[in-house]
């Protein structure tokens, strides 16, 4: 990753200052959740919530750091930047997310850290990583850190509002995916340079960049059932989220490849189109994944329309 020389001091100073501020805030406001973990979040009182949800947390963690990181390598000149800055954003974002989301759920003036808080912190970073795809190659690490601060703060408010209104968004399709996409488009519009309206030589992919992006897509595709079910109510809701997402993803793959071949004038497969179409299925299923009364074909049909 090569950046302008004026980054030599700006980025290190900002990064260190932000980390010191976060350490101080954690020391003042954050404590461990020492409550009995065999509470209402478990199907049985003997189960330990933390250990039960930790496998789902691991899956979400892989999606954030590996899936999104390699998905962004599609541009031929920004492979190192995409993976590296993805790691930077995620590492900072999960800490900032704990604070911003925790402010809405204080217990005795403290933010209690548990496995659900850690999962939600990863979710908060996903919004910035989605937006990152719209500004990749246009922003510096300093700008991305500032963008993460603003976006995660707004996300926490948006998520709290959705919960207050009782909106059904188990897989966070509205609060994460839609919000992240629109925020990224808005940021890209602000950073738009009229001189590049005809494109740029670096705006494209090559064989190996598409291959790495495919790896990211596979990680996202495999772990999306965990993403959609991680914060669902344990029991039937969580099971429905996993099952519906699982079959919707499978149906979307066939549709994505079919449409990709159909719209290409020689009938060849466009890997970039297929990559993002398959990811759309996981995003779209988030709002439907816990529907108990619906047949599984509903989510399949919905994702068919999303892919097209």
TrEMBL record:
Q: Which organism is it from?
A: Hymenochirus boettgeri (Congo dwarf clawed frog)
Q: Name one GO cellular component term.
A: plasma membrane
* UniProt keyword Membrane present: yes
Q: Which reaction does it catalyse?
A: NH4(+)(in) = NH4(+)(out); CO2(out) = CO2(in); methylamine(out) = methylamine(in)
Domain Ammonium transporter AmtB-like residues, every copy: 24-273
**Cellular compartment(s):** Membrane
Q: Name one GO biological process term.
A: ammonium homeostasis
Record key words, sorted: Ammonia transport, Glycoprotein, Membrane, Transmembrane, Transmembrane helix, Transport
Primary localisation category: membrane
The UniProt entry, under InterPro entries, shows:
Ammonium/urea_transptr, NH4_transpt_AmtB-like_dom, RhesusRHD
Q: What is this protein called?
A: Ammonium transporter Rh type A
Q: Which residues cross the membrane?
A: 12-32, 52-75, 87-106, 118-137, 144-165, 171-192, 204-224, 244-263
């Amino acid at each position: 990753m090569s950046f302008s020389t004026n980054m030599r001091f700006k980025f290190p100073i900002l990064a260190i200052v932000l980390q010191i501020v976060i350490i101080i805030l954690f020391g003042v406001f954050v404590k461990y959740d020492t409550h009995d973990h065999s509470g209402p979040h478990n199907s049985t009182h003997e189960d330990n919530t933390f250990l039960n949800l930790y496998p789902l947390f691991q899956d979400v963690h892989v999606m954030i750091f590996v899936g999104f990181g390699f998905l962004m390598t599609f541009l031929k000149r920004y492979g190192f930047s995409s993976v590296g800055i993805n790691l930077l954003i995620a590492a900072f974002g999960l800490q900032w997310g704990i604070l911003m989301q925790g402010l809405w759920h204080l217990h005795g003036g403290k933010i209690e850290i548990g496995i659900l808080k850690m999962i939600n912190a990863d979710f908060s970073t996903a919004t910035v990583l989605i937006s990152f795809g719209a500004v990749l190659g246009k922003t510096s690490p300093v700008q991305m850190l500032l963008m993460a601060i603003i976006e995660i703060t707004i996300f926490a408010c948006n998520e709290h509002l959705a919960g207050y209104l009782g909106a059904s968004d188990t897989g966070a399709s509205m609060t994460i995916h839609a919000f992240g996409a629109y925020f990224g488009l808005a940021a890209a519009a602000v950073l738009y340079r009229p001189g590049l309206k005809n494109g740029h030589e670096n705006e494209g992919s090559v064989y190996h960049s598409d291959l790495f992006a495919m790896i990211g897509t596979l990680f996202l595709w495999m772990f999306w059932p965990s993403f959609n079910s991680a914060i669902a109510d344990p029991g039937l809701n969580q099971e429905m989220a996993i099952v519906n997402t699982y079959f919707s993803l499978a149906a979307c793959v066939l549709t994505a490849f079919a449409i990709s071949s159909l719209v290409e004038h020689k009938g060849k497969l466009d890997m970039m189109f297929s990559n993002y179409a398959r990811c759309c299925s996981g995003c779209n299923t988030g709002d439907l994944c816990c529907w108990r009364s619906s047949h599984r074909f509903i989510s399949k049909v919905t994702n068919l329309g999303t892919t097209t």
